[in-house]
Amino acid sequence: MFSSKNPYSFLKVLLCLTLYFFVLNLVFPLVSDDFSHLMTSEQLGGLQAAANSFMTWNARTGELLLLLLGDWLNGVTYSVFNTLIFASIFYFTYQILYVRKPVSTSEPWSILVMLTILMLGSIFGAVFLWRAGALNYALSLSLFLGHFVLVRYYVADQTTWFERASLGSVVAVSTLAFLAGMSSFDMGAVGVVIHAAFIGFIIATKREWNWRYVALSMSFVTGFLVLYFAPGTQVRAGHAANVGIGELIGWLFSAQAPDFFAYSLLNIGKSMFKTNYVVALASLVAVSCSFGMLKNAELQSYRSRLGLGYAAIIVVLLALLFVEGTMAGDALGAVILVANGILSAVIAAILVLKPTRNAHAQTLLFVSLISVLLFIDISIYVISGSPTRRAYFFATYLSALIVTMLVTTYWSNKKTLLVFAPIFSLGLFYVSLATYGLYKVEQERVILPAQSHSGTEPLIIEDYAILNTPQFYGWDFLAKGESVENSGLNNSVARYLSVPKVELKNELQELGPMEFIDYLSTLSEEK
């Protein structure tokens, strides 16, 4: 079915996973912020709710779309929409990786590798399935990739669209580029860096300007600037106790520059410790493979010099930490990550300045550039001291992109399946169990009791359990005890369910797979 001789093998794999994902979306219930979004949209009207969010709290594309469409983007409509987002991410990823249609033996399994890493490294349920999370993260990634697929073709000198696209097509795609730039802080910032680098390359090489590319790039940058300077963004930033960009720049260009670097290293290290190790693993794999590929890429003469330079960077950064008195374990981990980022940037510069048609060199250039973007993305979030697990979704995606390129290029299908198929299967089991379990518990403990509840007494939820898998959940649950009065979530759920008040009686339970299955069985027997 998935033979390399069939050029549609990739599409068959994608179709199977898309159908599976559609079922997950149908089952996944409303949770956490979903209730407040729906109630706000209903009370103020979609347009007013979106405008209010833009002015007072969140100006990202997905958030505004949630409020604008309200209950229309719910149930089956949302399931279809979010499934299309899921499918587009992997289809665009294929284009980013290969810039062509599926033809080789390894390519159908690129989805297997990519999805496995995303299930391991991201908060999968929170960024792909949860209504509020998916439109703020998965949709952002889809828009970002859709925009940069065109740029990827342009960089690869496959410029048909840029030569022939009509004015209407350019306007439509530029509008999507604007929405992409406005959809995410870190993806937007990374996108601006990419465009700035490519525009610099055009100027340096005196390449002819293309008005269609200029329209796309300026639309993306404008979208990001609108997001960054939106009133709601400024209000939200005022609630955070982080070091501001102005202060950081002041450190960098003053006698306090060592403070800037020490602070950055410490926060990068803390962030990596608190999230996951997928990013660190991808960075190490990229560097180790880069040294191996230098020989095959006909750049053997650079290996020793790059090795010495890499060691020197580590020594300098360690010395800086020692002088600043911040030799924490977190910061030591960041030293490796920063050194890897700098090394990748140097390798990429060498390959750009000494272009070659060597296939290994092209792979090395791709991996090096993505590694640089990975480092930039991490730095954007953590220098301010405010890393979150969902914020690392894009970093995890970039890590998956690196590993997928290396695996599908240098591993056989047999080896790929042997390593990734068991992990992939286990991941699907956990995602399926967590999704169904969440639906079952919500129905039996919240929705059905609310439908039969009457009077002025609060709706008391005796117990509430979830599967103990940290790589799935990323939202707030109902509060209990004294916290109920100040819980916006509890109040939103109560209004949505038309009950006076709702509260959790006992602490949230996090159960292992077998315990959770027994718990779900008990719920069924209680009917």
How is this structure best described in words?
Helix 9 crosses helix 11. The strands form 2 sheets. The chain has a two-stranded parallel sheet. A two-stranded parallel sheet has the order 2-4. The protein has 24 helices and 4 strands. With 527 residues, it is mainly α. Among the domains are: 144 residues, no CATH class; 97 residues, no CATH class. The two termini are 43 Å apart. Helix content is 72%, strand content 2%. Keywords: Membrane, Transmembrane, Transmembrane helix. This is DUF6056 family protein. It comes from Vibrio chaetopteri.
Spatially, the strands of the biggest sheet line up as 1-3
**Tell me, what's the shape?**
globular
**Nearest-integer average pLDDT:** 84
Parts with pLDDT < 50 across at least 5 consecutive residues: none
Order of helices and strands: HHHHHHHHHHHHHHHHHHHHHHEEHEEH
| Oligomerization category of the chains in this entry | single chain
Task: Tell me the helix content.
Answer: over 70%
By DSSP, the count of extended strands is: 4
Computed CA radius of gyration, to the nearest angstrom: 24 Å
Strand content: under 5%
For the record, give the distance between the C-alpha atoms at the N and C termini, rounded to a whole number.
Answer: 43 Å
Structural class: mainly alpha
Protein name: DUF6056 family protein
InterPro entries: DUF6056
Transmembrane segments: 76-97, 109-130, 136-155, 162-181, 187-204, 211-230, 275-294, 306-325, 331-352, 364-384, 390-411, 418-439
Pfam families: DUF6056 (PF19528)
